[in-house]
Amino acid sequence: MEIRVIEGIGRVMEGMQNLRSFAELNHAALYKILKKHDKQCGSHIGLTTLFPKVVDESRLGDMSRFDDLHAKLRELSLLSSHTEGLSASPEVARLAAGLGFRATAPQGSSQNELLVSFFFGVSTSFVLSLVLLLWLPAKDPKTFSDCYFMAPFPVFRVVFSVLLGLWCIGFIAMACDKVDINHMFILRVDPKCRVTSDWFFSRASMLTALWILTFGMYVIDYKWEVLPTVWSKAGYNKRSSVHFVLYPSILLVCTLAGLLMPSVICRNRYKCAVLRSVGRTVAAPLFPVDFGDNIVGDVLTSLSKPMQDIPAALCYLFQSHPQTENMVERFKKNGHTCNAAAMQFVLPLIAGLPYLWRGLQCLRRYRDSVASKNTDITHLFNFGKYMACLGVVLAGAICPSRIGIVVVVSVVATAYAGFWDLAIDWGLGYYDLIPSCWPQASLGSGSSSLLDASNGQWRRSYSNGDGMPEQNGQTRKPGRSLSRHVYWACSILDIMLRCTWVFTLMPPHIVTKHIVWRVVFVSVISSAEVVRRSMWAVLRIENEQISNASGFRALLWVPKRLNSGARPRPALMNQDLHSPLLL
User: Fold this and answer.
1) What is the helix (H) or strand (E) element at residue 546, kind and residue range?
2) pTM of the entire structure?
3) pLDDT for residue 290 is more than 60
4) pLDDT in the model for residue 565
5) Which of 82, 125, 330, 532 could be stapled to 497 by a disulfide with Cβ–Cβ 3.0 to 4.6 Å?
6) 79 assigned to some structural domain
7) Are residues 34 and 90 in the same domain?
8) Residues 31, 138: one domain?
9) Do 330 and 337 meet the contact criterion of CB atoms below 8 Å apart?
10) Listed residue (497, 557, 549) closest to 528, CA to CA
């Protein structure tokens, strides 16, 4: 709270300085206008008579009021324990509290915009070239093997999921900033954190260009045998080679280096905080659940299919190379080169554990609500939703050949989860989607709906329309941040992607037997679920801010976001193109 007070004082200080500069600018402008007037009219009335009169009446030359306000702000900023013994300006107090410099640049810095634009252009040209390379026929089609060519796809797909995750996190942060959703406060992120959407977009654009380049080099090398083969006689055919494993290996190492690279913005303590949140989620129900852990648990459920690529990728990387005929046939049959018997147990376990962890979080929240004598059975219904999703995993693993059972369980889980997304997680009701039917229309212009923050119940009452708490202690629900059309679009997309999401929990061979279409199907469905979860997260955080839907906060009030648009001062940064990569 003290940090937020210092931040608030800093904002007032900046506003006061801007107002003082505005007064000085008007003072100078008035002088130049009247001087021009005297010159054109050939008189001295403007400067000798009008100018002193206007300055005196408007107090343009009186800067003592700003000096008094500066002194009061300085006194207030030094009352915090973070600035004990310090005698300096509010800006120095902010720095002493570890809040960094205030923004002197707009929301999107020119360096980051240039960097993202450069890599986006490079990636676009690479994608067009890659499509052409995949379409062209291979050299010596008799030795070209689709299965051998696609065997390293689990590694490429793991890296692609990481990149997609970076893009989606950046999208969530950017969307929240655009509509004034204080996601940093809702997620209980360190107020000193300066990680914004620009950082995620910069890293994602750089690594995406690297991914496309590396994958394109692999395609060219395998299809047209650019480099000489090594130990091809021990492999599947004469096109086999040891060096093909280097492409996914190098890409994986570069991606890990890009994520773990030291940064003055995304510090290691922030990365460790994310890891601790994941650890608390995995250890559920041993730890109390906050909103950040809640979101992490939901994100892990959407990453269940991408995480299934991890053992397949490890098998490919650590098995002998070049690949033998036995390994190629295993990939053709199962979609991976691992032992089929072991993967029948490992894959459902990876897919089901996130739903189990999330369900245990719901049970922990129910237990905590009972202990606080504010029992909320909604957590039990939420637990049932994740158990229904877990049922899809079990049905696909135990009886994949019984399509009827799998379909019934999947339909129940999809309907359950889809309704929960719209009605509970997003808090969308009939009147949110069709505002013309809002009962306020029948109450008159001075009426509104009220939300009691203590129990989440809607009530009708009269208000003066200022959005402040009523005299009876009730608080009006703040307006939605997005338009009705966005909610309609998100609702439809969520239901559609929920239907495809079910396939991520089932073995892919249920859908298609062809190895090429199976690989493409898994890649598209896994990516679609990650995109759906990012869209879901924005509306989920928005609902949490405006209604305290899950009751994680004692107050409905949410402060304005700290350091919105903050960036380091350009003088403290290297001005070359590479500097954003190291921030």
Assistant:
1) helix 515-547
2) 0.74
3) yes
4) 45
5) 532
6) yes
7) yes
8) no
9) yes
10) 497
Whether residue 168 sits in one domain with residue 35: no
Tokens representing 477 are: 């629900």
296 and 330 inside one domain:
yes
Q: In this structure, are residues 61 and 27 in contact, taking their beta carbons and an 8 Å threshold?
A: yes
Dist. CA 461–CA 470, nearest whole Å: 9
Instruction: Name residue 442's amino acid.
Output: S
Neighbours of 245 (CB within 10 A): 20
Q: Is position 346 within any domain?
A: yes
- 18-41: pLDDT as tens digits: 788 888 888 888 888 888 888 888
Omega within 30 of 0 (cis) for the link into 570: no
| Average pLDDT of the residues in 167-186 | 91
pLDDT reported for residue 357: 96
Rounded mean pLDDT of 394-420? 85
| Through-space distance between the first and last CA atoms of the chain, rounded to whole angstroms | 28
Burial of 583 from C-beta contacts in 10 A (0-12 / 13-18 / 19+):
buried
Is there a domain that residue 460 lies in?
Answer: no
Residue 310 has pLDDT above 90, yes or no: yes
Kindly list the strands in the beta sheet with 458-462, ordered across the sheet, starting from the edge strand earlier in the chain.
458-462, 447-451, 475-476
Q: 448 phi and psi, to 5 degrees?
A: -160, 170
Average pLDDT, the chain: 80
Distance, C-alpha 247 to centroid of its chain? 29
- Residue position matching structure tokens 């199976």: 518
pLDDT confidence of residue 97: 58
Which of 48-52, 116-120, 487-491, 496-500 has the least mean pLDDT?
116-120
475 with 556: CB under 8 angstroms? Answer: yes
- Residue of higher predicted confidence among 326 and 452: 326
Q: Are strands 475-476 and 447-451 parallel, antiparallel or unpaired?
A: antiparallel
Residue 250 domain-assigned? yes
DSSP 322: S
CB atoms within 10 A of CB 577: 11
Q: What are the DSSP calls for 72-114, one per residue?
A: HHHHHHTSSGGGTT--S-HHHHHHHTT--PPP-S-SS-HHHHH
Using DSSP, state whether 148 is helix, strand or coil: helix
Q: What average pLDDT score do residues 456-470 get?
A: 37
- Domain holding 70, by residue range, is 2-96
What type of residue is 244? Answer: F
Q: How far is CA 63 from the centre of its chain?
A: 45
Given its phi and psi angles, is residue 241 left (phi above 0), alpha (psi -120 to 50 degrees) or beta?
Answer: beta
Instruction: Give the confidence band of 549 by pLDDT, cuts at 50, 70, 90.
Output: confident
